[in-house]
Design goal:
Radius of gyration: 21 Å
Largest sheet: 8 strands, mixed
Number of helices: 13
CATH superfamily of the largest domain: FAD/NAD(P)-binding domain
Helix content: 25-40%
Number of domains: 2
Distance between the termini: 39 Å
Amino acid sequence: MRTQVAIIGAGPSGLLLGQLLHKAGIDNIILERQTGDYVLGRIRAGILEQVTVDLLEEAGVADRLHAEGTVHHSIELVFNRTRHPILVDQLTGGKVVTAYGQTEMTRDLMDARAAAGLPTVYEAANVSLHDFDGKTPRVRYEKDGRTHEIECDFIAGCDGFHGVSRQSVPQGAIREYEKVYPFGWLGVLSDTPPVSPHAIVYGNSERGFSLCSMRSLTRSRYYVQVPLTDKVEAWSDERFWDELRLRLDPDLASRIVTGPSIEKSIAPLRSFVAEPMRFGRLFLAGDASHIVPPTGAKGLNLAASDVKYLSSALVEYYREKSEAGIDTYSDRCLRRVWKAERFSWWLTTLMHRFPDTEGFGQKVQDAELDYLVHSKAMSTALAENYVGLPLEL
């Protein structure tokens, strides 16, 4: 079997890359080790930057996003039991973000790929990457008891943090940077109207961080900071709702509509970057190369910008016989990645209670929050990063 680009991973980054390449007339095959239903069952991000929305429009899969997504013009910060709005659209010349679940984005891309008859191999076992340091890369996998091999021009590793793509890079060829945070997020998904339908609410209280977000006008996503030693089983729905209210201002707490959780989990937080992102004819994209704590809502959006850089580079290669975009892919991605890593680390540090945040450290955090909401310059810096930095920095 032969194709131009073999894409490893059928998450949103792999599917978006496949769709953009298809639109440009570039053949591609996607391999995914899980089932399609498993991929759709992942409960992940739901805030899209304008860059990501524009990419979905370019890919021809934005109709349902525009019909069902909810535009956010502001974010709200809660500290000292008081809520402070940050009007991001007014601070960024009209830029906004859109609430639209990653699951729905993935479904749209899957449907578009199926409608176009493009090949996706689900339940591809024992995927292995070969010869990507030369001109004829190959990908092997097992399916239905048989071994298959794909010859290709390029391999795109869009298979996440634990995927085979980064693991296939020779030892010593990659450098990793990591910060692990000393707490996790207990998240609850519920079919209830969001408490703030046009803004995300970030809370900092003496009890820890909280976040009020949404997937739609009828589905809410809430989080509270918990110790990494906590177990989901110890958190009943009633206990979660009670704790969330205690971390918000009284008015907002009184307006929360509660209901049974349809998903509940505890996720650890980490910052991680592996660089470079290109090894011969193998390219890493999205979580295969970098992880951000979800505080800044950057994970999915960073994956989308990687895909934009990579798809543009590949289109340039096939149409213009130029390797300029390929040669600069890693540097362009990493410049934006590290700015998003910085923002996500800063916002995480600002809004969470750390084990050593006492005394002087707590006073400094209080002062920074107070300065942030009263300084147009600092509020603008927050807003610019929140809505997404431009692709060309």
